[in-house]
Amino acid sequence: MSHYDNNTLIQKLAETHSLSLSEYQFLITHRDADSSRFLTALAADVRKKIYGNRIFIRGLIEISNICKNDCLYCGIRKSNTKCRRYRLTHDEILNCCREGYALGFRTFVLQGGEDGAFTDDTLCQIIKSIKQEYPDCAVTLSLGERSFESFRTLFDTGADRYLLRHETADADHYALLHPSNMQFQSRMQALKDLKAIGYQTGCGFMVGSPFQTPLTLAKDLKFIEEFAPDMCGIGPFLPHHATPFAKYPAGSAELTCFLLSVIRLIRPNILLPATTALGSLSDDGRLEGILAGANVIMPNLSPQSVRADYQLYDNKKHSGSESAQGLSILKHQFQSVGYEIVTDRGDIYHI
Ligand code: SAH
After folding, report:
1. In a domain, 19, yes or no
2. pLDDT of residue 351
3. With 301 labelled, which of 27, 126, 142, 268 sits at a CA distance of 20 to 30 A?
Protein backbone atom coordinates (compact mmCIF):
# COMPACT_ATOMS: atom_id res chain seq x y z
CA MET A 1 0.00 0.00 0.00
CA SER A 2 3.04 2.26 -0.32
CA HIS A 3 1.38 4.18 -3.15
CA TYR A 4 -0.46 6.25 -0.55
CA ASP A 5 0.95 9.28 1.15
CA ASN A 6 -0.52 10.39 4.47
CA ASN A 7 -0.76 14.12 3.83
CA THR A 8 -2.40 13.47 0.47
CA LEU A 9 -4.93 11.19 2.13
CA ILE A 10 -5.66 13.77 4.82
CA GLN A 11 -6.17 16.45 2.19
CA LYS A 12 -8.48 14.13 0.27
CA LEU A 13 -10.46 13.38 3.43
CA ALA A 14 -10.85 17.09 4.17
CA GLU A 15 -12.18 17.69 0.66
CA THR A 16 -14.38 14.63 0.10
CA HIS A 17 -15.15 13.47 3.69
CA SER A 18 -14.51 9.94 2.55
CA LEU A 19 -11.71 7.42 2.14
CA SER A 20 -11.67 3.75 1.20
CA LEU A 21 -11.27 1.11 3.88
CA SER A 22 -7.66 0.49 2.87
CA GLU A 23 -6.93 4.22 2.84
CA TYR A 24 -8.23 4.58 6.42
CA GLN A 25 -6.15 1.59 7.39
CA PHE A 26 -3.04 3.10 5.82
CA LEU A 27 -3.65 6.44 7.51
CA ILE A 28 -3.81 4.79 10.93
CA THR A 29 -0.86 2.48 10.41
CA HIS A 30 1.44 5.15 8.98
CA ARG A 31 0.52 8.08 11.16
CA ASP A 32 3.50 10.10 12.38
CA ALA A 33 4.11 13.41 14.13
CA ASP A 34 4.16 15.40 10.90
CA SER A 35 0.96 14.11 9.37
CA SER A 36 -0.77 14.23 12.76
CA ARG A 37 0.04 17.93 13.07
CA PHE A 38 -1.37 18.55 9.61
CA LEU A 39 -4.49 16.54 10.41
CA THR A 40 -5.07 18.28 13.76
CA ALA A 41 -4.74 21.72 12.18
CA LEU A 42 -7.30 20.88 9.48
CA ALA A 43 -9.72 19.38 12.00
CA ALA A 44 -9.46 22.36 14.37
CA ASP A 45 -10.03 24.65 11.43
CA VAL A 46 -13.15 22.81 10.27
CA ARG A 47 -14.59 22.77 13.78
CA LYS A 48 -13.87 26.49 14.13
CA LYS A 49 -15.66 27.29 10.85
CA ILE A 50 -18.82 25.59 12.09
CA TYR A 51 -18.86 26.01 15.88
CA GLY A 52 -16.43 28.91 16.33
CA ASN A 53 -14.75 28.71 19.72
CA ARG A 54 -17.92 27.39 21.38
CA ILE A 55 -17.71 24.23 23.49
CA PHE A 56 -20.96 22.51 24.47
CA ILE A 57 -21.42 20.86 27.85
CA ARG A 58 -23.72 18.05 28.99
CA GLY A 59 -24.53 17.11 32.56
CA LEU A 60 -23.97 13.37 32.83
CA ILE A 61 -26.30 11.67 35.30
CA GLU A 62 -25.43 8.02 35.85
CA ILE A 63 -28.87 6.77 36.83
CA SER A 64 -28.07 3.12 37.57
CA ASN A 65 -25.12 0.76 37.57
CA ILE A 66 -27.35 -2.30 37.59
CA CYS A 67 -26.91 -4.15 34.31
CA LYS A 68 -28.17 -7.39 32.82
CA ASN A 69 -25.28 -7.50 30.37
CA ASP A 70 -21.83 -8.95 30.76
CA CYS A 71 -19.63 -6.94 28.39
CA LEU A 72 -16.12 -8.26 28.87
CA TYR A 73 -14.55 -4.80 29.19
CA CYS A 74 -17.00 -3.14 31.54
CA GLY A 75 -16.62 -2.75 35.30
CA ILE A 76 -20.38 -2.72 35.97
CA ARG A 77 -20.93 -6.02 34.11
CA LYS A 78 -23.41 -8.39 35.67
CA SER A 79 -20.71 -10.88 36.78
CA ASN A 80 -18.85 -8.31 38.85
CA THR A 81 -20.21 -9.25 42.28
CA LYS A 82 -17.87 -6.76 43.98
CA CYS A 83 -19.64 -3.81 42.39
CA ARG A 84 -21.85 -1.90 44.86
CA ARG A 85 -25.08 -1.48 42.95
CA TYR A 86 -27.35 1.57 43.03
CA ARG A 87 -30.33 2.98 41.22
CA LEU A 88 -31.37 6.64 41.39
CA THR A 89 -34.98 7.56 42.07
CA HIS A 90 -37.07 9.97 40.01
CA ASP A 91 -36.52 12.66 42.65
CA GLU A 92 -32.78 12.10 42.87
CA ILE A 93 -32.51 12.48 39.10
CA LEU A 94 -34.60 15.67 39.18
CA ASN A 95 -32.39 17.05 41.94
CA CYS A 96 -29.34 16.48 39.73
CA CYS A 97 -31.05 18.42 36.95
CA ARG A 98 -31.89 21.26 39.33
CA GLU A 99 -28.28 21.54 40.40
CA GLY A 100 -27.08 21.21 36.82
CA TYR A 101 -29.46 23.85 35.51
CA ALA A 102 -28.18 26.36 38.04
CA LEU A 103 -24.62 25.60 36.94
CA GLY A 104 -25.51 26.33 33.30
CA PHE A 105 -26.24 22.90 31.84
CA ARG A 106 -28.95 22.79 29.17
CA THR A 107 -28.54 19.12 28.25
CA PHE A 108 -28.97 16.25 30.67
CA VAL A 109 -27.65 12.84 29.72
CA LEU A 110 -29.26 9.93 31.55
CA GLN A 111 -26.82 7.04 31.29
CA GLY A 112 -26.91 3.66 32.91
CA GLY A 113 -26.61 -0.07 32.69
CA GLU A 114 -29.45 -2.07 31.17
CA ASP A 115 -31.53 -2.00 34.34
CA GLY A 116 -34.96 -3.60 33.92
CA ALA A 117 -36.42 -1.33 36.60
CA PHE A 118 -36.25 1.54 34.13
CA THR A 119 -39.38 0.56 32.27
CA ASP A 120 -40.86 2.83 29.63
CA ASP A 121 -43.39 4.11 32.19
CA THR A 122 -40.71 4.99 34.73
CA LEU A 123 -38.51 6.67 32.14
CA CYS A 124 -41.44 8.55 30.61
CA GLN A 125 -42.31 10.02 34.01
CA ILE A 126 -38.71 11.17 34.44
CA ILE A 127 -38.50 12.63 30.94
CA LYS A 128 -41.85 14.41 31.38
CA SER A 129 -40.77 15.94 34.69
CA ILE A 130 -37.46 17.16 33.27
CA LYS A 131 -39.16 18.65 30.21
CA GLN A 132 -41.84 20.28 32.32
CA GLU A 133 -39.40 21.93 34.70
CA TYR A 134 -36.72 22.72 32.12
CA PRO A 135 -38.41 23.15 28.74
CA ASP A 136 -35.28 24.81 27.39
CA CYS A 137 -33.18 21.70 28.00
CA ALA A 138 -32.42 18.68 25.87
CA VAL A 139 -32.65 15.16 27.27
CA THR A 140 -30.19 12.57 26.03
CA LEU A 141 -30.59 8.90 26.87
CA SER A 142 -27.77 6.36 26.98
CA LEU A 143 -29.39 3.24 28.35
CA GLY A 144 -28.34 0.53 25.95
CA GLU A 145 -30.49 -1.47 23.58
CA ARG A 146 -34.28 -1.32 23.77
CA SER A 147 -37.07 -2.27 21.40
CA PHE A 148 -38.15 -0.02 18.54
CA GLU A 149 -41.45 0.58 20.37
CA SER A 150 -39.64 1.58 23.53
CA PHE A 151 -37.29 3.94 21.70
CA ARG A 152 -40.32 5.49 20.02
CA THR A 153 -42.31 5.89 23.22
CA LEU A 154 -39.39 7.65 24.91
CA PHE A 155 -38.89 9.89 21.89
CA ASP A 156 -42.58 10.78 21.75
CA THR A 157 -42.43 11.68 25.43
CA GLY A 158 -39.68 14.20 24.76
CA ALA A 159 -36.25 12.55 24.70
CA ASP A 160 -34.16 14.39 22.11
CA ARG A 161 -31.00 12.37 21.69
CA TYR A 162 -29.71 8.84 22.21
CA LEU A 163 -26.15 7.66 22.63
CA LEU A 164 -25.48 4.04 21.81
CA ARG A 165 -21.89 3.26 21.00
CA HIS A 166 -21.62 0.56 18.36
CA GLU A 167 -18.37 -0.48 20.17
CA THR A 168 -16.84 -1.91 16.98
CA ALA A 169 -18.06 -2.10 13.40
CA ASP A 170 -16.48 -5.53 12.87
CA ALA A 171 -18.82 -8.42 13.75
CA ASP A 172 -16.00 -10.82 14.69
CA HIS A 173 -14.38 -8.18 16.90
CA TYR A 174 -17.77 -7.48 18.50
CA ALA A 175 -18.05 -11.16 19.41
CA LEU A 176 -14.68 -11.01 21.18
CA LEU A 177 -15.80 -8.09 23.34
CA HIS A 178 -19.22 -9.40 24.31
CA PRO A 179 -20.85 -12.61 25.52
CA SER A 180 -22.62 -14.69 22.88
CA ASN A 181 -26.09 -13.49 23.87
CA MET A 182 -25.17 -10.00 22.69
CA GLN A 183 -25.44 -9.64 18.96
CA PHE A 184 -23.63 -7.22 16.68
CA GLN A 185 -26.66 -7.12 14.40
CA SER A 186 -29.01 -6.06 17.23
CA ARG A 187 -26.68 -3.23 18.21
CA MET A 188 -26.54 -1.98 14.64
CA GLN A 189 -30.30 -2.39 14.22
CA ALA A 190 -30.90 -0.37 17.38
CA LEU A 191 -28.80 2.47 15.96
CA LYS A 192 -30.81 2.42 12.72
CA ASP A 193 -34.05 2.42 14.72
CA LEU A 194 -32.96 5.44 16.74
CA LYS A 195 -32.13 7.38 13.64
CA ALA A 196 -35.35 6.40 11.86
CA ILE A 197 -37.42 7.49 14.87
CA GLY A 198 -35.84 10.94 14.72
CA TYR A 199 -33.42 11.05 17.62
CA GLN A 200 -30.18 12.95 17.29
CA THR A 201 -28.22 9.73 17.35
CA GLY A 202 -24.74 8.96 18.58
CA CYS A 203 -22.54 5.93 17.98
CA GLY A 204 -18.97 5.38 19.08
CA PHE A 205 -16.23 3.00 20.12
CA MET A 206 -13.31 2.48 22.47
CA VAL A 207 -9.80 3.14 21.18
CA GLY A 208 -7.35 0.34 21.94
CA SER A 209 -9.95 -2.22 22.98
CA PRO A 210 -8.57 -5.78 23.06
CA PHE A 211 -8.25 -7.36 19.59
CA GLN A 212 -8.74 -4.02 17.82
CA THR A 213 -6.65 -3.65 14.67
CA PRO A 214 -6.12 -0.89 12.09
CA LEU A 215 -8.64 -2.80 9.96
CA THR A 216 -11.37 -2.86 12.62
CA LEU A 217 -10.72 0.86 13.23
CA ALA A 218 -10.96 1.51 9.49
CA LYS A 219 -14.35 -0.22 9.59
CA ASP A 220 -15.42 2.04 12.48
CA LEU A 221 -14.50 5.09 10.41
CA LYS A 222 -16.28 3.77 7.32
CA PHE A 223 -19.34 3.05 9.44
CA ILE A 224 -19.33 6.61 10.79
CA GLU A 225 -19.01 7.91 7.24
CA GLU A 226 -21.98 5.86 6.04
CA PHE A 227 -24.24 6.01 9.10
CA ALA A 228 -23.71 9.77 9.40
CA PRO A 229 -24.44 10.05 13.14
CA ASP A 230 -25.12 13.39 14.85
CA MET A 231 -22.75 12.47 17.70
CA CYS A 232 -19.86 10.11 18.20
CA GLY A 233 -18.32 9.12 21.52
CA ILE A 234 -14.82 7.73 21.45
CA GLY A 235 -12.39 7.27 24.29
CA PRO A 236 -9.50 5.00 25.18
CA PHE A 237 -10.22 1.52 26.50
CA LEU A 238 -9.13 1.47 30.15
CA PRO A 239 -8.89 -1.84 32.02
CA HIS A 240 -11.05 -2.63 35.04
CA HIS A 241 -9.51 -5.02 37.58
CA ALA A 242 -12.63 -7.18 37.99
CA THR A 243 -13.20 -7.96 34.31
CA PRO A 244 -11.77 -10.57 31.94
CA PHE A 245 -9.81 -7.74 30.28
CA ALA A 246 -8.09 -6.64 33.51
CA LYS A 247 -4.65 -7.41 32.11
CA TYR A 248 -5.05 -5.77 28.71
CA PRO A 249 -3.22 -2.49 28.11
CA ALA A 250 -5.06 0.83 27.98
CA GLY A 251 -5.65 2.58 24.68
CA SER A 252 -3.58 5.66 23.91
CA ALA A 253 -4.50 9.33 24.11
CA GLU A 254 -2.45 9.95 20.99
CA LEU A 255 -4.47 7.54 18.82
CA THR A 256 -7.73 8.76 20.37
CA CYS A 257 -6.93 12.36 19.43
CA PHE A 258 -5.81 11.31 15.97
CA LEU A 259 -9.15 9.57 15.43
CA LEU A 260 -11.10 12.53 16.82
CA SER A 261 -9.50 14.65 14.10
CA VAL A 262 -10.27 12.08 11.41
CA ILE A 263 -13.91 11.91 12.53
CA ARG A 264 -14.16 15.72 12.49
CA LEU A 265 -13.02 15.68 8.85
CA ILE A 266 -15.45 12.86 7.97
CA ARG A 267 -18.41 14.76 9.47
CA PRO A 268 -17.53 18.43 9.91
CA ASN A 269 -20.59 19.33 12.00
CA ILE A 270 -20.63 16.23 14.24
CA LEU A 271 -21.03 16.63 18.02
CA LEU A 272 -17.82 15.08 19.27
CA PRO A 273 -17.08 14.78 22.99
CA ALA A 274 -13.67 14.78 24.59
CA THR A 275 -14.65 11.95 26.92
CA THR A 276 -14.14 11.16 30.59
CA ALA A 277 -12.00 8.17 29.60
CA LEU A 278 -9.64 10.51 27.72
CA GLY A 279 -9.59 12.83 30.73
CA SER A 280 -8.98 9.88 33.05
CA LEU A 281 -5.95 8.78 31.05
CA SER A 282 -4.12 12.09 31.43
CA ASP A 283 -4.73 15.42 33.11
CA ASP A 284 -4.78 17.34 29.84
CA GLY A 285 -6.70 14.62 27.99
CA ARG A 286 -9.92 16.49 27.40
CA LEU A 287 -8.14 19.67 26.41
CA GLU A 288 -6.06 17.71 23.90
CA GLY A 289 -9.30 16.21 22.63
CA ILE A 290 -10.77 19.67 22.08
CA LEU A 291 -7.60 20.83 20.34
CA ALA A 292 -7.87 17.76 18.09
CA GLY A 293 -11.38 18.69 16.97
CA ALA A 294 -13.83 17.69 19.72
CA ASN A 295 -16.48 20.24 20.73
CA VAL A 296 -18.37 18.67 23.64
CA ILE A 297 -17.52 17.98 27.30
CA MET A 298 -19.68 15.88 29.60
CA PRO A 299 -18.95 16.64 33.26
CA ASN A 300 -20.30 14.31 35.92
CA LEU A 301 -23.58 15.44 37.47
CA SER A 302 -24.41 12.24 39.39
CA PRO A 303 -25.00 12.49 43.15
CA GLN A 304 -21.66 12.52 44.99
CA SER A 305 -22.71 9.49 47.02
CA VAL A 306 -22.83 7.13 44.00
CA ARG A 307 -20.15 8.58 41.75
CA ALA A 308 -17.43 6.14 42.73
CA ASP A 309 -19.79 3.22 42.05
CA TYR A 310 -20.27 3.92 38.35
CA GLN A 311 -16.84 2.49 37.72
CA LEU A 312 -16.67 1.37 34.11
CA TYR A 313 -12.87 1.19 34.38
CA ASP A 314 -10.24 1.70 37.09
CA ASN A 315 -9.31 5.27 38.08
CA LYS A 316 -12.31 6.85 36.36
CA LYS A 317 -12.21 10.53 37.24
CA HIS A 318 -15.28 12.14 38.73
CA SER A 319 -14.03 15.07 40.79
CA GLY A 320 -12.38 18.43 40.12
CA SER A 321 -12.97 19.59 36.57
CA GLU A 322 -14.60 16.22 35.73
CA SER A 323 -17.47 17.11 38.03
CA ALA A 324 -20.27 19.46 37.10
CA GLN A 325 -19.53 21.38 40.28
CA GLY A 326 -16.00 22.00 38.98
CA LEU A 327 -17.28 23.68 35.84
CA SER A 328 -15.61 26.97 36.72
CA ILE A 329 -12.19 25.27 36.69
CA LEU A 330 -12.97 23.91 33.25
CA LYS A 331 -14.24 27.27 31.97
CA HIS A 332 -11.08 28.94 33.15
CA GLN A 333 -8.83 26.28 31.67
CA PHE A 334 -10.56 26.52 28.31
CA GLN A 335 -10.75 30.30 28.25
CA SER A 336 -7.00 30.51 28.60
CA VAL A 337 -6.62 28.67 25.29
CA GLY A 338 -9.35 30.59 23.50
CA TYR A 339 -12.44 28.40 23.95
CA GLU A 340 -15.76 29.38 25.47
CA ILE A 341 -17.96 26.95 27.37
CA VAL A 342 -21.50 28.03 26.60
CA THR A 343 -24.89 27.74 28.29
CA ASP A 344 -26.81 26.19 25.43
CA ARG A 345 -28.65 22.99 24.48
CA GLY A 346 -25.83 22.44 22.03
CA ASP A 347 -27.77 20.89 19.17
CA ILE A 348 -25.97 19.90 16.00
CA TYR A 349 -25.54 22.77 13.54
CA HIS A 350 -26.91 21.74 10.19
CA ILE A 351 -24.77 22.90 7.33
N1 SAH B 1 -25.39 0.56 28.97
C2 SAH B 1 -25.22 1.71 28.10
C3 SAH B 1 -24.13 2.63 28.58
C4 SAH B 1 -22.78 1.97 28.63
S5 SAH B 1 -21.50 2.84 29.44
C6 SAH B 1 -24.97 1.22 26.70
O7 SAH B 1 -24.96 0.02 26.47
O8 SAH B 1 -24.84 2.03 25.80
C9 SAH B 1 -20.95 3.88 28.13
C10 SAH B 1 -19.73 3.43 27.37
O11 SAH B 1 -18.62 3.26 28.22
C12 SAH B 1 -19.82 2.09 26.67
O13 SAH B 1 -20.55 2.19 25.48
C14 SAH B 1 -18.36 1.73 26.44
O15 SAH B 1 -17.91 2.09 25.14
C16 SAH B 1 -17.63 2.56 27.50
N17 SAH B 1 -16.85 1.68 28.39
C18 SAH B 1 -17.29 0.63 29.10
N19 SAH B 1 -16.25 0.00 29.70
C20 SAH B 1 -15.13 0.69 29.37
C21 SAH B 1 -13.75 0.53 29.65
N22 SAH B 1 -13.30 -0.47 30.39
N23 SAH B 1 -12.88 1.44 29.14
C24 SAH B 1 -13.33 2.47 28.39
N25 SAH B 1 -14.61 2.64 28.06
C26 SAH B 1 -15.51 1.77 28.55
Report:
1. no
2. 80
3. 268
CATH code of the domain containing 159: 3.20.20.70
Enumerate the H helices of the chain as residue ranges. Answer: 6-16, 21-29, 33-51, 90-103, 120-133, 148-157, 171-177, 184-197, 214-227, 253-266, 276-281, 285-292, 304-307, 327-335
DSSP state of 274: B
Q: Mean pLDDT per 10-residue run, the chain (351 residues)?
A: 83 98 97 97 97 98 98 98 98 98 98 98 98 98 98 98 98 98 98 98 98 98 98 98 98 98 98 97 95 97 97 96 92 95 96 80
Of 165, 191, 209, 255, the one to substitute when testing ligand 1's pocket (max ligand atoms within 8 A of C-beta) is: 165
The residue among 134, 90, 141, 91 whose CA lies nearest residue 345 is 134
Residue 279 in any domain: the answer is yes
Q: Using a 6 Å CB cutoff, which residues line ligand 1?
A: 73-74, 111, 113-114, 142-144, 164-165, 167, 206, 235, 237-238, 240, 277, 312-313
pLDDT attached to residue 2: 55
Using DSSP, state whether 11 is helix, strand or coil. Answer: helix
Return the residue whose CA atom lies nearest to atom 2 of ligand 1: 144
**Inside any domain, residue 264:** no
